[in-house]
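Box 3.1 A note on notation
Throughout this textbook, protein chains are presented in two layers. The first layer is the amino acid sequence; the second is a token string describing backbone geometry. Keep the layers aligned when reading.
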Amino acid sequence: MPGRRTLLLTVVGYVAFGLAVFLVALYFTFPYDVLRERLAAEVQQATGLSARIGAVRPQLPAGIVIDDLRLYPTPQATAPFVRLARVTASSVLDLLQGRPPSVEFVGQAAQGSLTGSVLQEESRRTISLQWREVDLGQLQPLLGSLPFQLTGRSRGTLRLASPGNDHTRGSGSAELQVERGSFRYQSPGGLKLPEVSFTGLHLRLDLGGGQLRLREGRVDGTDLQVTALGQSVLRRALGESPIAGQLRLRLTPALRQRAPELGLLVTGAPDPEGFATYTLTGTLAAPRLLPR
């Protein structure tokens, strides 16, 4: 009996070793060029942007590395506005089976730097982003559905944890700072406001309990100053989420003369410091200001 047991263990050991060698060989000889094309197609379908990938290679123990992922606004464009030098995915099996893997990335976006990660933990997803010196004007292909245009050099952080894609049950925070930029708004009804320049913009937001809270909102410029606080109860259709808050606005006479449209909208009586106070209402897609 001991001899048979030893023989059985030896056979099992050889089989296990052979299987391990086979899996390792399969891992390193997998047709990653095919996977590269599939990944590029999936990124393009998910973002609506043209995606090109330099190379896909294995990384032990079971992950892959995507080198030089580039995103273009159109297939004909020659200069990418997002270029990730390295994207690390935790599991190639998740990719092959259509499940989103955990990824980490570092690269460039709109002439700035971008680092971040997307961690998949059972049914929970955690997104972390950090960016510096990103030119917001070059990101309009991503922001084209919004009713406003924002330009300037930005830096900021974002952390969002949610069950799947349900932002109404998510938690997190975000901070955005923009230097020497401009803002332009067009309402859903067709009203266009002229471009207004500013020297600095600072936003700080928290997400939790189904609400998005604006903890700090400030815009400073030669022709205007704005401060705002508010919150929104989030809905699945994000643009339909109602908002409630307060906004204080001060415009210079020069800006009122240059942009009479603002004078028609900004009708509140100013306080001794020159600020007019408004109630912020409406929705995220169509905000409204009511004089107080």
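Confidence is low (pLDDT under 50) at residues 7-28. The longest strand covers residues 148-163.
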